[in-house]
Amino acid sequence: MKSGSEARPAFWRSYVFSQDHKVVGLQYALTALVFLLIGFTLVMIMRWQLAHPGLPVPVVGPWLGARAPQGIILPEFYNALTAMHGTIMVFLGIVPLAVGGFGNYLVPLQIGAADMAFPKLNLASYWWYLAGGVLMLASFFLPGGAPQSGWTSYPPLAIVNQGGQTWWLVGMLCLITSSLLGSVNFITTIVQLRAPGLTFSRLPFFVWSQLVTSFLLLLAFPPLEGAAIFQLMDRLAGTSFFLPSGLVVSGRVLHNAGGGNPLLWQHLFWFLAHPEVYVLILPAMGIVAEIIAVNTRKPLFGYRALVHSSVAIGFMSLIVWAHHMFITGMGTTMSSFFQTTTILISIPSVVILTCLFLSLWGASIRFTTPMLFALAFLPMFGIGGLTGLPLGLAPAGLHLHDTYYVVAHFHYIVAPGTIFALFAGVYHWFPKVTGRRMNGPLGWLHFAGTFVCMNLIFMPMFVQGLAGMNRRLYDGGLQYTLDRNVVGLHLLISRAAWVMGIFQVLFIVNVFWSAWRGSRAEENPWEATTLEWASASPPAHGNFASPPIAYRGPYDYSAPGARLDFTPQFARDEI
Amino acid sequence: MDVPYTIEPRTDTGLYNAQLGVWLFIASEVMLFGALFSGYALLRTGADAWPSGSRHLAVTLGGVNTFVLIASSIVMALAVRSLRHAQWRRGRRELAITWVLGLVFLVIKAYEYREHVLAGELPSTNNFFAIYYTLTGLHALHVIGGLIVLAYLIGPGASMRRTQPVRFTHRAAGLSIYWQFVDIVWILVFLTVYLL
Fold it and tell me: Which end of chain A, N or C, is less surrounded by CB atoms within 10 Å?
């Protein structure tokens, strides 16, 4: 009995309420992966309605209950699926995985620290995140269903809608609290806890990307918090912050004080949500840069340019938000300003992508699974970025606004872009986390299948969007003659999405199988140079047997005259 | 396992961890209240008519509250100075005075709310009262949060004074930075909502 009572607190403190950055990072990563799967499942259900409008959903149809009588999706439920897919993917899946997961696990290791600066805040930040996620998911079971106003929650719809918007707002406040605690912790950790010798110009690019990301989360999220408070007041206290006078809803004039401004929400929302786009992409660029350096066996091309560009992106991302609002009629002066800043911010993005491409030049590339994903990231992000330029120019943006072209554009950045980088990161750092390698052939199959399906899903959407198909239609555009030529593509897209779902099973199997049965990995299986590879695999509590010292820059590969083609940062002399 | 630089500053940055952490937190708070004040400015400039704050709000009570909060800020700063000079009893007394002044602020604020509610002036009445309740309400929440931490420092958290006196002073200093910020926000609220 005595041993039992001792074992239990140890279990809770080691695995559930742990202050160890590695456990918190894993909690974030696993939770976020589950949310990614949920978000993807929602879209697979949605794609059925688009491919076969009005037909009952197979397999999961009977479980959908009153939202889908006889398995046929109701319009309100379709809207809820869209809103929750976006919300879950952005706020509960990708950011928590990229920042909470990879950032928490790797930043202290890469700077040679024993833990984060504020371990208790780190623990709290995970639980705020989980609470927010659970609140959001729980809204599906409310009488009115989940929120139905898109992940952007535009008023007046978001305020007058019967769905679970209030839960969305409260959940969002939890997530903002979580990211506030996290970003304060990350910045303090990176500034204060760097190992001796690890100056800012010797930081791995991944740490730089996390630093810039943390500043964006710190400064851009609070305005959304303010906006969420305004919207909560509108829903609960009957205020009219976002409700104009004389608003007519379903044929009846709304009895409210009026005088509000729906555009105010859009400004406050996009003041967060555009920097959020860079929160989605910067950590991905950091991961890809690390993997490219390791697998090309040469220093990254233009390390300083990469760092300066990511800092420039950070600053500029705060002044481009209204390019999401060209169609609101905010005036040509505003539009001119924001299209100028939007075109300007593409310069540092292109610099980063170019540096990563040039890093491949003349390299003896190791085609490992993480490298395959990292290599695919480059052209996929390139397509996503370049197709964004027409959207940044007001005249083209007006035409393409709210069409499938926009869906294809940002998914190319986030899905085959960021998610490929996250997959690459999982395959790359799996040996560090578990002490075992992931299976190669399974990884290759997962990559090939996902790569082909991703492009089959999103490439046709460019065609649909250019033809003018609106992206929010419950029947996928059947009702409009203008969509007649491209509506058939929905079937191809949907089938590709379902096949891609099957390929993800390979990934899940690979993770679980490799965690217990994979071949053993030693401390530095990839022969990499950064500090995380100085710790054991998996690292013990406290990370390093003795505090590491950084003697050189992060990417000392293939130095002329050296015996080996890599010299770790923690090695005093060339080996 | 101990986190370094919780007490002594790191030599090349010149900061201890909590110092940087508090200032980052304040930066995020500036963005939060900045967004709310911008929303206020946009709604007010876009409105056909906007009621004059001094005619609808209790300016005298608000003015008294301004002085109460400024006084509490000064006492809070004195408390940090006393703690830095290891004058523990005096420091604790000053922390307690700060706490009482914070409570006085909240009581007066609650009385103001009561009067408005009894007069039928609710957040839903018009956007002027909507912004009044939102801004002052969020500010009051910040005061409450500060009082909770302050109560912890005076009460259960005070034992740290014996074990780690420098760290205890750091905590009071961090709270003081926050308290000054809350004070500044109130002054802005008083100027722009009550008087303007």
Answer: N
CATH number, residue A379: 1.20.210.10
Same domain, A241 and A318: no
Give yes or no for A188 touching B (CB within 8 A): yes
Residue located via tokens 């839960």: A167
Whether A112 maps to a domain, the answer reads: yes
d(CA A534, CA B15): 28
Would you state the pLDDT for residue B36?
97
- 3-state SS class at B124: coil
Both A91 and A228 in a single domain?
Answer: yes
A214 with A132, same domain?
Answer: yes
Q: A73-77, A190-194, A203-207, A256-260: which has the minimum mean pLDDT? A: A256-260
Query: How many domains are contained in chain A?
Result: 2
**Is the ipTM of this structure higher than 0.90?**
yes
The range of the structural domain enclosing residue A171 comes to 23-38+74-245
pLDDT at B1: 60
Interatomic CA distance for residues B145 and B151, integer angstroms: 10
Token pair of B44, please? 């007010």
| pTM, entire model | 0.96
Question: What pLDDT shows up at residue A61?
Answer: 87
Q: Per the structure block, which two tokens stand in for A290?
A: 């690390």
For every residue of A366-406, DSSP letters joined together read ---HHHHHHHHHHHHHHHHHHTHHHHHSHHHHHHHTTBHHH
- What pLDDT, on a 0 to 100 scale, did the predictor assign at position A178? 98
Q: What pLDDT does A11 receive? A: 83
What percent helix, strand, coil does chain A show, rounded to 5? 70, 0, 30
**CA angle (A255, A242, B26) in 5-degree steps:** 135
* Mean pLDDT, residues A536-545: 92
Of A555, A438, A452, A443, whose CA–CA distance to A497 is shortest?
Answer: A452
Using CA coordinates, name the residue in chain A closest to B23.
A184
Q: Tell me whether residues A219 and B27 touch, CB distance under 8 A.
A: yes
Secondary structure class of A470 (helix, strand, coil) = strand
- Name the class of domain B56-194: mainly alpha
**Residue ranges of chain B whose pLDDT lies below 70:** 1
Contact B5 A264 (CB under 8 A): no
What is the mean pLDDT of the segment spanning A386-406? 94
Longest dimension (CA), chain A: 81
DSSP string, A242-266: S--TT-EETTEE--S-----HHHHH
Q: Is residue A535 part of a domain?
A: no
Q: Is the same domain home to A318 and A399?
A: yes
Q: How many CB pairs under 8 A join A and B?
A: 129
C-beta atoms of B31 and A541 within 8 A:
no
pLDDT of residue A390 exceeding 90 = yes
Contacts of B27 in chain A (CB under 8 A): 218-219
Does residue A470 fall inside a structural domain?
yes
- In the stretch 368-427 of chain A, residues with CB closer than 8 A to chain B read none
Same domain, A177 and A305: no
Distances (CA, A) of A203 to A64, A262, A282, B17: 49, 43, 15, 19
- For the stretch A48-79, pLDDT in tens is 999 999 999 998 888 888 889 999 999 999 99
Mean pLDDT for chain B overall = 96
Taking CB atoms and an 8 Å cutoff, what residues of chain A touch B133? 233, 237, 239
Q: Which of B25, B35, B123 sits opposite A268 (nearest CB)?
A: B35
